[in-house]
Structure prediction request, 260 residues.
Amino acid sequence: MPIWYHVSIWLGRASMLLSGLLVWRLVQDRLFRRYPVLFAFLVFDLARTLYANSLNPRSNRYARFFMWTEPVSWVLYFLLVWEIYRIVLKGHPGLASAARKTLAVSAGIAIAVSAAMLWGDLARTPDIRGVLQAIFVLGRAVITAVFLLLLAGLVFMSWFPMAISRNASACLIGYSVYFFSKALLMFARNLFGNAYTAQAGALNTAIVAGCMAYWLLRLKAANEAVAEPLRPRSNPEDVERLMSQLRAIETSLERSTQRG
Prediction:
């Protein structure tokens, strides 16, 4: 076995351990009530990984398990975006409404584009291999859409000095890195094929473990009560100017919603 395979195995075990500790932290600090989708995602992903590790990755049973559970992950991905948008845009109904519409449209486009590609893959290979290939194609579109939505939110929150809790900041930053890693892994597979799959997989697992460690350090009950901008600004005039622009955007969106 190549060394990258063993590195990926150990990093995966570290990631599962950190994920389990993070679940415990969310329960201990009662943060699972504030971030129920994150909690559900962590529990589902941990249980899924533990069971998948007990199967032969080359068996049909493993393939079928992947086929049935991967779509659940996609739903949780979009719900993670919905949850963090709901939290950070609380008190901004116009922006929240626009975010919900953008999320719905993005999900619809990702599904429509992937369905078209899926039809072609299944037509060429109408067996379990074709289904797996189709799932990979659909997963690529879903992860790309989720990452772009998170990136847009990260840029927006970095530009406008909106006060959000430290926990929400940690989630937004961590989600962006997490899905960037997944998108990068898929891009590497498409670009290089199987030549660098082991290295890319190890890198992705390392980044996922890093995200778990980051959340374990940052997500705390005390941080929920501390609100601050994602990008602090020292010039009060800049803050007032940007907040004025934000209020104008909010007013415009509210009027648009009322007309609709």
About this structure: The chain has one domain: 3-259. The chain has a mean pLDDT of 84. The two ends are 60 Å apart (CA to CA).
